């Protein structure tokens, strides 16, 4: 697409940017979870089961929603790129 029609190359990069944003969401959740875990100390309370399952649920929620959103962005982005490439009426 970018080789044949250089004017549309930047327009078709939008799905790539949106997929990158999903990765940044996962990174933010990972940093928040990592920041809430304290290093082991003799007197401090340990990392309990409740906290572990809460962090697992947060990671799964972010990961699975990112996975499905990425699949949707890929499907819609593919259709959009093909539509823009085949006709000028979409502009």
Summarize the structure.
This protein has 91 residues and is mainly alpha-helical. It contains 2 helices and no strands.
Structure, explained:
The chain is mainly α and 91 residues long. It has a domain at 12-28 and 49-86. 66% of the residues lie in helices and 0% in strands. It is built from two helices and no strands. The chain has helices at residues 14-35, 49-86. The longest helix is centred in the last third of the chain and has 38 residues, at 49-86. The mean pLDDT is 83.
State the main characteristics.
91 residues, mainly alpha, 2 helices, membrane, ATPase_proteolipid_csu, proton-transporting ATPase activity, rotational mechanism, transmembrane helix, transport
Average predicted confidence as pLDDT:
83
Sheet/helix structural class: mainly alpha
Largest beta-sheet characterization:
none
**Contiguous helical run count:** 2
Low-confidence stretches: none
Report how far apart the termini are.
15 Å
Give the % helix. Answer: 55-70%
- SSE sequence, one letter per element: HH
> Beta fraction of the residues?
under 5%
Please state the CA-atom Rg, rounded to the nearest Å: 21 Å
User: Which descriptor suits the 3D outline?
Assistant: elongated
């Amino acid at each position: 697409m970018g080789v044949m029609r250089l004017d549309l190359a930047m327009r078709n990069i939008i799905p790539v940017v949106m997929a990158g944003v999903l990765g940044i969401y996962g990174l933010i959740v990972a940093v928040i979870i990592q920041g809430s875990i304290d290093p082991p100390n003799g007197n401090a309370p340990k990392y309990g089961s409740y906290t572990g399952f809460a962090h697992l649920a947060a990671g799964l929620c972010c990961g699975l929603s990112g996975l499905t959103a990425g699949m949707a962005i890929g499907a819609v982005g593919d259709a959009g790129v093909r539509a823009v490439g085949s006709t000028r009426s979409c502009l």
